[in-house]
Predict the 3D structure of the following.
Amino acid sequence: MTHKEVIVVAADAPAAMARAIGVRFRRAGRLYYFDPADADLALGDYAIVETPRGLTAARVVMPATELDLNDLRGELKPIVRRATDDDLSSMTNYREQEVEAERAFARAIMEKRLPMQAVKAEYTFDGATLTLHFSSREARLELGELVTEMASRFRTRVELRQVGPRERAAMRTGMGRCGRELCCATFLSELDTVSLRMAKDQNLPLNPDKISGACGRLLCCLQYEHDGYVQDKLAAEQAQGGGGCATSGACDSCGVHELKDVLGQAVAPGHEPEPPADPPEPTQTHATERAEPEPRRSRRSQTAPAKRPEAASDQETKRSGPQPRRRRRRRRRGRTRQRPQGN
């Protein structure tokens, strides 16, 4: 008698769902989730939430939605309350003071000659905390004296926070190569990894000046069309009977230009194009067409006239003839001068 094994597959338990809203603290900042509790918040409203810096006002960018708890990072915290009109007016007032705080921070850095650069100043909505962002190549800086000076001047709690090149560009914003505002300051909330391989797959020049952004790092837009270039390269390689290795380097395709619909193909050994022939040498002109230049004479030969042979009698008369007046006068003056006599 044979025994049959019975395998019972249990159905997956339903995932735990939670009601959450999405908020941002900056225009293109990271998306954070909070429990709206009983508050009815719409898009564009402000909510007061608890953060490590204290109470902060955040703008709602995603209405209340059911989300899987496994997709959330950390614990889902509830909001404190809905922002009132007094909170919004106080937030507007302190945002106007951020410009002066940033200038004072930059002047203090110059006076102390610190190896750092002021980036941005941010107040909380109630002015309880002032966060001063700066960038520096130094990993460790002694900033205790600077914090004390800023706190005594603005009479509030001051925090210094160091940011990297990409975050600095997102805070300061600017114009990109395309003529539009920087992506990281408008809509790119999370920065993915950008590698030099993306530029190679798109056949872009590997010139740092052409593939670097305002932050000095690789352009974030290199990742926008990278998947399209890779898929086209795969399809072109598979159509030619290749293995479809895409960016592994084992295929013969050396480049795909999506806009021009051109596939670069490696040349088989022994079928390389012949190098261009050497240019013909210039033909020499006939001797009768171009006359040879005359030999150059020295300066003395050009200026001094040729001497004519003179008769012996003429030379004798010149030697025995009277001397010029100039010489006779000099001799007469020399005769009339009296030498000083010694004591």
